[in-house]
Design a protein that fits this description.
Number of helices: 8
Distance between the termini: 113 Å
Helix content: 55-70%
Low-confidence stretches: 268-275
Radius of gyration: 35 Å
Structural class: alpha+beta
Amino acid sequence: MTLDPNYISTYADFFIKKIAEYSPEVISALIILFIGLYAIRIINRLVRKLMIKRNLDPTLSKFLADILLWVLRGLLFVTVIDKLGIGTTSFVTILATMGFAIGMSLQGSLSNFAGGILIILFKPFKVGDTIEAQGIQATVLEIQIFVTKLVTGNNQTIFVPNGSLSNGIITNYSMQGTRRADLTISISYGTDLKKAKDIITEALAKNPKILTSPVAEVSVKNLTDSSIQLAVRPWANIEDFSSVVATTLEDCKMAFDDAGIIFQPYVSELSNNNK
């Protein structure tokens, strides 16, 4: 097959003409692209510094900065292809349709995403807090956009979806800084009530981890068929709470032993009925 030199010349002239026609648009688009990328980098850097200066939550700062970065990149991309003469209307419609389809398929993830935003914004808890939610009591290790990472007292790591977490009841044991223990000690009806209360009060006063303000409370909680139940309510700092609960029970038991007072065992109603 022999190529006609006239055809080659015609096609060459055609391509050269088209290149000459589109060269200004291509050059303009490249200039816009490089300037836009540089401007986006500067804007993103300034926004991050501003959020740090305003003491915004680090997780929220990173998230907002990343969203801004991709939004600006998307706008730059649309601007560049429009400069090249490519119609953007159909392109934007396709993107919107894809976004809707993805959104419908990721409803659960979007719910967790929205929950993460709410947690970060309203701060019902922070990293290091001990909380109880979704039937779990644990310490917060990390707040992510979709899940919150918790660690239990026996060192189990739990990931709770932010959607269910933000829509449920959250008990934050760390927010107030102090916590009251609610303990119950049972004594028999034959025990000197005032003496028992004085012994418990003295045992609480000897524990340096128990706060003096608010004052610990020792009072009658209930009168059952088999015992007098005393409510023992010492206050402690959050970091000392578990220790205070354990040492209070131990100190009261040892003080009762020294005074010859015996703890009254709990007798259930079912046990009484079986007699």
